[in-house]
Amino acid sequence: MKIVLNGEEKEVKENITIQELIKELGIKAPNYAVAVGMEVIPKSEYQTYRLKEGDRVEIVTFVGGG
């Protein structure tokens, strides 16, 4: 199925969870947030939240510094 990930179309497996997507993308940053549509998804739901065809997903990582 196709989703839009950070503004770019991406092909992913059907019914993929957010946690599976994060693993597939190789994101290892300790601090990141995921929004689907305009809703920020709580980390407690990453294992159970299943993406649907056409979902718009934004993944933002936080970097410290100064």
TrEMBL record:
Q: Which ranges form a coiled coil? A: none
Classify the source by domain of life.
Bacteria
- NCBIfam families attached here? thiS
Question: Under what name is this protein listed?
Answer: Sulfur carrier protein ThiS
Q: Taxonomic lineage of this organism?
A: Bacteria, Pseudomonadati, Aquificota, Aquificia, Aquificales
